[in-house]
Every structure is written in structure tokens, then in C-alpha cells.
Amino acid sequence: MLQVQAIAQEDFQKASAYILRCKDMLMRLPQMTEYLHSLCYNFGIETYKNNKYEESSFWLSQSYDIGKMDKNSVEPEMLAKVLRLLATAYLDWDDRAYYDKALHAINLANKEHLSPAGLFLRMKILLKGETPNEELHEAIMEILHLDVSLDFCLKVAKLLMDHERESVGFNFLKIICEHFKSSENIGKAWLLHIDMLLQRKEELLAKGKIEEIIIGHQTGRQLTTELVGCLHNILWKKAARSFEVQNYADALHWYYYSLRLYASDQTDLDLAKLQRNMASCYLHLEQFDKAKEAVTEAERCDPTNIFTQFYVFKIAVLEGSSDRALQAITALENILTTTEQEENDVLTDRGSAVMVLTLAAQFALENELQIVAGKALESWNLAVQCDKDPVTMREFFILSYKLSQFCPSDQVILIAQKTCLLMAAAVDLEQGRRASTTFEQVMCNLQRKHKNSVCCLVCFPSLMQFFLILFRESFPPF
């Protein structure tokens, strides 16, 4: 009790003195061994959690020593657990100064009871030091001899890669693939190998592995659905990086690998997204026929997607087909005004559709298809029809204003622009008045202030002219 009280008061000197006295008494009271061992272990955990590594290492060392005093009281598995935490405490305390102590502790732990956790921690400690590759190779072979799982081996391989031991890591991956070749989850090892190769810009080797997987997938050795999704993710990320640096041909190469994983009659939303991504690359490369084919496939898989219809519109504009372009715009508006939200994530918010309509209008004008003025009017009409949905109404007014900016500037257009902005600002004011929380009120006010600043720029000349006329009528010249 005195010892417990001392530790509670964070008096480490008193507590450590008490525990040493109790330890000396165990020869006369062996039945207290397990209790005292557990007490020290719990103190070791508590001090470790509080980042008191020096105190933690003391308590854990005492826990191990006490446990060894009576082999019948404490199981080897428990002693190994104590030593693993002790090794971890040394690492977190100072992995350079206490490297040898940490390694000694984990070696003792593995002698007491060999386990995957102990082997992994030993590998982690070895990687903290300047351990030769030969010694690391011996350590990984020891892991395989323990008959551990595939997931555990992949975890070790990734650890080696993260510590820039590529030669050992890649060699281990090859050994893993051979060792677990009959496993139904061997695809995990293949994908990790590909991912590691791509991260290190070993693209030729990665492409070879991808070809092997795709051919195997098409000829009977199929990946699980989960692993197919993981491979798609790897390929799309690589394609996206190439797209960002405007290397569209390379992006297409990776997207094509992804396309080959789909069955010829397969239809799903991800395939539609893949075809849209490929169409975008083809458009940048000015390969319009291939872009049209990709968009046609995307429309087959997901015709109600707003981005699919946008690409249909772009292709129609590039072909000079006003009728087809207008059909696509109509489809876009139908998607936007539908009251039922589709489950395929076509539209997460109305702002996306407004943005797409704006881009479509700009693209049409750039290609000399004069369909924008009519669409601006339609957007206005849609806004009026959305009186039960103020947010959508505001967005349509803003869209109408943006579309009108592409039209020739005259008095009629200017009046329409002013009206759109005033109506949008009025909607924001009403939304702010009805907001139930302070946060919503602040957001509405920010939106209102932004629109008001634009509104003032557009409307200010007319207001000045109005006040000038009023002044002249009120104060006629002498």
C-alpha cells in the first residue's frame, strides 16, 4: 500500500525503493510473485503512456526479473510481452543511446516466446541501426520459418521499403510471392510489389508485373473483387499524376490497363468515369474520334451523369453539331432540375451542375456556336420555377448573370444582369434571416457581401444616374 501511495503521488524514488524491498521479501513469500510482477507491469504501462520512459523501463525490468523468480507463477508469453514493451520504451526514450538495450530486450523476448509481434519489433529495431543487409535477410528468413501469415510478411516488406532497404525488400517480395503462390490472396503481394515499383519510378518493371496480372486475370487466375478495386486505384492514381503534368499519352497508357480489367459486357459507374477520363485525355491530344468512342461508352454505362453529358456536349460542339449540343444541354438541365437524387453520386451539390453549365456555355461561345443567350433565358426561367428551393433559385440567377456576360453588351443585357444580381442578393438576405444557427447566418452574410460587391459594381452607375436625375428635378437651375 505504501508503494502504491508513493507511485500515486509520483514519488518515483520512494516507489522504487519500496518495490526493491518487496522484491527481497519474495524468497520468504513466493506466493506474492505474480501479484508483484503484475503490479510492476501495470506501473510500466502507466508511466510509458505518460512518456516517462526512464521510469517505465525500471518498472518493466523489475516486472521481468520478478516473473523469472518463479517460473510457475508467470507464463513465458507474459514475460515476452513485458520484454517487448521494455524494448519499445528504450526505442522511444532514445533509439540511438539505448539501441543495444532495446535489441537485447527483444532478443530475450523472442527466446522466452517467439511470436510475429516479437519478430516484427526485432526487424524494426534492426532497421534503426546500421544493420548489414545480410543480417536483415537472415531475419526475414526466420520470419518465414515461423509460418506467419501473408499479411504479416507484406507488413514486414513495407517496413523494409519505408526504411529505404529496397534490395532486401524487393527480394523479400519475390520470396513471398513464391512462398504463398497457392494462396487465394497472393494478389496482395503482387499489388504491393507494383505499388512499390511505381513509387520508386521503376515503371518498366511495374508494367511487366501489371501485364502478368491482367493476363492471369483474363485466363483464369482471377483477382478478388477487392484486389481488382485496389489495382484500379493504383492505376488511376498513376494516370492522374501523368495528367497533372500534361503527359496525356502516358495517362492513357495507365487508364488502358484499367480498361482491360473490365469484361467486354460489363457496365458500371466506375467504367463510365474511366471512359470520361480517357475522353478528356483524347481531347487534349486532339484525337476526336477516339474521344467520341470513349464518350459513347460512358453514355452507355451512365447516361444520367452530368459530366457524361458535358463531354457529349463538347464532342457535339467540336463537330459543329448545334442540334446534338442543344440536346446535351437539355439533358444537363433535366438532371439539374430533377427532384430525385440518384444514388450514383451524379450530383453531390447543385453548384457542380451550375459550374458545368457555365463551362458548357463558355466552350460553345469559344467555338462560335451562339446558343448561350437562349440558355441564359432558360436559366432565368428555371430560377423563377425554383421558388420552393431558394438555394437553387440563387444559383440559377447567378448562372444567368454569368451566361449573360458572354452576350454583346447593350442596355437590355445590362438591365438583366442587374436584376439577376439583385435577386440573388435578395435570396441571400432571406436565407440569412431564416438561418437557425449563428454559423449559417455568418455564411449567408459572407455570400451576400460577395454578391453585393459585384452587384454594386454593376448597378452603381445606374444608381448614380438616378440620383443625378432626382437632384436635378428637386433643384432646378436658377
From TrEMBL:
TPR repeats lie at residues 272-305. InterPro entries: Spo22/ZIP4/TEX11, TEX11, TPR-like_helical_dom_sf, TPR_rpt. One of its GO terms (biological process) is meiotic cell cycle. The keyword Hydrolase does not apply. Keywords: Meiosis, TPR repeat. The keyword Cell membrane does not apply. This is Protein ZIP4 homolog.
